[in-house]
Specification:
This protein is of the alpha+beta class and 178 residues long. Helices cover 30% and strands 35% of the residues. The termini are far apart.
Length: 178
């Protein structure tokens, strides 16, 4: 049997499917993923997030990529420009989520590479992100795609009684990166 092909679409080419996005995000958060929620987001929260991101995409202030595997939405990610006028050439990769059933199949790498390439093409000079310090897989992925650590806040993220480092990464296109 041939492996399923990963298809990564630009958010402008995608027909929004808030229910599918909610399924991915809610399932990941329920499983403990570090996506900015302690409890799974509601369908309304996800729909509002999608509306906000797609509006920013339309304005040229963001990029959204979605990944499908076998015709099913299995991941998404987006970056958004910093709002302050002095920081406009910079953007933050705010969310990258891959369905747990698709982990280990290259979806995260394909999404991140597409977002990085799109940021460079959009004239972004520095793309930043933060990641929970216990997410070794994501840390390795980001390093392998040219990101470097530029800071760390020890025990900054609180999930119940547990504490995790918040790690800051950057991809500096000014230095001839991807």
């Amino acid at each position: 049997m041939e492996p399923e092909t990963i298809t990564v679409l630009d958010g402008r080419e995608w027909t929004p499917d808030p229910d599918a996005v909610h399924r991915v995000l809610a399932d990941l958060v329920a499983g403990g993923a570090a996506l900015g929620w302690v409890e799974p987001p509601s369908p309304d929260e996800v729909a509002q997030l999608l509306d906000r991101v797609l509006s920013a995409v339309e304005a040229g202030d963001a990029a959204l990529r979605v990944a499908h595997l076998g015709g099913r939405l299995v991941g998404l990610g987006y970056w958004q420009r910093y709002a302050r006028p002095t920081h406009r050439p910079h953007a933050d990769l705010e969310k990258l989520a891959v369905d747990a059933a698709a982990h280990g199949r290259g979806v995260g790498r394909a999404l991140t590479a597409a977002l990085v390439a799109g940021a460079g093409a959009a004239g972004i000079e520095v793309l930043t992100l933060d990641v929970r310090g216990d997410n070794a897989h994501a840390l390795g992925l980001y390093r392998s795609l040219g990101f470097t650590e530029y800071g760390r806040l020890p025990d900054f993220v609180a999930v119940g009684d547990r504490r995790y480092d918040k790690v800051f990464y950057m991809h500096d296109f000014r230095t001839g990166g991807l």
